[in-house]
Amino acid sequence: MQGKLIDLKNEALAQILSAGNTRELEEIRVAYLGKSRGKITNIIKKLPDLPPQERAIVGRFANETKKAIEDALETQSTFLSKRRAENIAQTEWLDVTAPAVSLPDGHLHPLTQTLNEVVKLTNRLGFQVVTGPEIETDLYNFERVNMPKNAPSRDTQASLYLDCRNSKIQPGEILLRTQTSNMQARVYEKTKPPMRVLVPGKCFRVDDLDATHSYEFWQFEGFVVDRGTKMTHLFGTLDYILKGLLPGIEYKLWSTNFSFVEPGVEVVAKRTDGSWMELLGAGMIHPNVLKMAGIDPAQWSGFAFGMGLTRLAMMRFQVDDIRVLTNPDLRILKQF
Ligand code: PHE
User: For the chain, how many helices (H) and strands (E)?
Assistant: First the structure.
């Protein structure tokens, strides 16, 4: 019986030493020392059958074996939990004092940044922002701003018409708006003067794509209708916006023609390479436009301006090609 105990002890110790986790250790404990069927327990249970002398010797030996296995289990258990703690420390170690990993910041598109600035500046002058449709009728885009059908001035705004062949709409009645001036008549219908309005938005024209032209571009229209509005108010407003957006800007004003203003002016600004780029058209709102809107030109007068937002952004960020601002490539956009 002692021989059997020695074998069991060696077997148990070998298993304990190779156990990899506490669950395995528990299985080993049950197999040898478990109350009902443990191999050592079974032997201890049989002790009363032995003759008294042998019983004492084997009994002591059995207890020693049991103790040796319990000690080995204890030691291995301590070893395993220490190793586990070390592993965690190595793999899951967390330095709560380390600086946080910063996530890459996004930022607003240069056009949006410029537009936000325009809105901020004009807000200070009392302008309110209004937006409107990009798909527009001939009526609002042209006729109500004094550009009747067949007006030669329409030639300057080659238009993209919608294909209405399978509808009741007359051909040439619906187009992508060529200018944010389309919102003048829409606002006049709903608002009585005095008013100060800013209309940012996308416009579309048939145009070949080159460094300063595109078939789609951002524009914003500003218009003021009030009593006694004069050209000097227009100049002051333009100067405030231009210098606010482009500190140090050099610009020239000269007279030009737009059917919806009289007189009309144009602003060209000096670029870094010394060339001049057209930035905006402006003027005193034509009495016909006011009359069509039911506003009496004898009582009210107003001015309007339409600036190319894309071109302003080009100057602001010193970009010499419009296509840079319409390119969605993040490697380009990250630079602004
Ligand atoms: N709508 C004109 C354009 O797009 C610009 C403009 C607006 C001119 C308002 C005068 C007054 O060319």
Answer: 12, 9
